[in-house]
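Annual report, structural modelling task.

Input specification for the calcium ion complex:
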Amino acid sequence: MAIDGPRTLAVALGTLALAVLTGALITWQQHRDAAHAEVAMAKLFLDSRLDAVALELQRLAALPALQAPLQDCPSALVQALLRESLASALVRRFDLVHAHSPLRCGPEGEHQAEPPAVLPTRGLALLLGEQSGVKPQWVLALPHGAVLSATLDADALRLSAGELPDRQAGSPTRITARSMGAGSAVMWGPRAATQPAWGLPPLQLLSVRHNVLLTAESDRADVWRAALNNMLLCTAVAWLVLGAIVAQVWRRAVNRARLVKRLARALAKRQFVPFVQPIVDLNSGLCVGGEVLMRWDHPQRGILGPGEFIDEAERTGLILGMSELTMSLAAHRLAPLAQAQPQLYFSINITPGQLREPDFAQRLAKTFTADTLPRQQVLLELTERDFVDPLALGQLIALRADGWRIAIDDFGTGQSSLSTVEKLPIDRIKIDRAFVSTVDEKTVRRPVLDAIIGLARELHIPLIAEGVETRSQWDYLAARGVASAQGFLMARPMAIDDFVRWTAQQAASPNAGAALPGAATQTRLPDTSLAQEGAGASGALHALWQRMGSTGGVEVRDRLHLLRPYTACFVGRQALDWIVRELGVSRDEALRQARALVALGLVRHVLDEHDFEDAELFYRLSPSSHAQVVLAAPEAEELKRALHSAVNIPWRDHCRGLLRHRQCATGSVLVTWIARHFGAPRATAAQWTAQAMRQGALRHVFDDQPFRDDNTLYRLG
Ligand code: C2E
Ligand code: CA
Ligand code: CA
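The model returned the following structure:
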């Protein structure tokens, strides 16, 4: 698992930059939102206070003493000014100021002052103190040239924390009110001007009623502090998210690496086996062949589909070995059926990697021979993308010229369909399941499906529809002349011996599969072993296997290797000598036959890891039932019934540590019992027991771990 340094650094720096930018944006947004809210509140506050002062001024202006021009301060006026000054909560004092005259009337009586430089000409004007300590004044021009002025408390327009209740991050540091007449007052924050923050110009709001402009500003240092906090927070969150993603990617990579190791081990142990899904003629319902599909016969998890491993196998190239093994097993195991029924064909999935192998054609020719599955009964399935690569296309043309038949798989899902079909003599087109499923959709038009059917008809290429799951799909395709189909309606992919029985039963009642979805796979058919049918090559191999085990056969005895004993085994090299002598064939031919015996499961390496080699390796003859290959798994119900009704399984109490478990049995006891009951080899019986557990016939005493052939305890489910 390699880590790409520069890319990791770039991602880390990119994340950091993104986090910093996000932090800055959040800060900006917070300041704008808070300034908007607070300047609006400040305006409401200012308006309400000035409204109250204006009202008091107007009440004063209505006094009869003020209705005519004044030369002095009548005592009635002075008293009124004193009374109103004392009564007002906001105004410290009211004064009457004469235009162009030093005479003023105030609550304390007549006094002299500098005539005001500016007198409002009409209406109201606010004279706010520019510097600290100067009290805001609110004046009202009287009709005869004088003005009434209200001097407010120095803090009368200052906001308290109570007036700005929801102060939040980003609230402005300073709010000022500037009179359009003159002067300004600080309503919130320091009296001294703040340093404007970069990128955050002051926010302004005009009180039209009083002609006052309110400005909310944020201090640069304050904004920086908030920005820094936000950036740190965003960075922390980003790193956390990035960490989680990295952990996830890492976990996946580790899982993938583990899977690759397991696949390699499984390949060495030859755990990949071919299953076959029948292909049937849509007119007659008769089986015309099958598609060979790879399965992983996992020792603990049972049979696994390619979805679990094929991508990884293709990525790592392990698919080459796995395909080789599956093809070889399929060729040998299907041989008796293929030779007995030469009208059947079997499609084999080929990967682009295989096509690129320079000796692929020779390997194919070696695997599919007249003795196994003859090449005229083989259909090589390739997806459309394999036809795009010119190298692969050349290889395909050569294969076609050599007599191999070729099908385009998953037609319609890739590119190039038309040009491909024109360039290469294609024997079959397989319609992808996605298009077949449109038959059951609530639509009257299936443009792609109908177009593929039309195209194939034009080109006279028979079609195979994939994924037929319903009777209506069958009818739709049959009515439009699609030749054959495969799908769960007829049968799911199954082990080869099940397939052999399926074809036998299906030949007796061709439409059974279609009429009763899945019925054929669910019914356990009479156990007819391949050996009994054993025509041709397979029959000869069974005869050879019998002779190997009988008197005068290979030397079977207990042997020792690296201090480890191996019972009842023979040596590969000696066995080849024996075959050469016995059959009078070349050593190469003897090796080929021995490998065919391994493929059929009649001979196994003692550790289950090797194909047959001309070397000092130990092999065993499989037991006479050679059930691993041909024995059908009992049906779920049958297995369950057997376990429940068995009287000789020692279900009893077991102690584990301080715990006592009632009525259970160990995995190994169960496997031994099943092996004896069904006459199956231990490995097969272990698989069946695991299967019984998956189907609920058995359960683990504590949890749902997979079944283990050891001291683990199980109960009846
Ligand atoms: P594919 O070649 O398109 O194979 C057909 C897949 O459709 C099979 O999935 C089959 O089980 C599934 N199928 C068939 N009928 C139905 C149906 O009615 N409904 C549904 N839902 N599915 C249906 P499977 O066996 O899981 O194989 C998946 C893919 O793995 C195959 O797709 C093929 O691309 C690949 N594969 C399988 N075996 C081999 C192999 O031996 N070699 C290579 N290279 N690829 C293989
Ligand atoms: Ca296929
Ligand atoms: Ca397909």
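Residues 11 and 273 are 43 Å apart (CA to CA).
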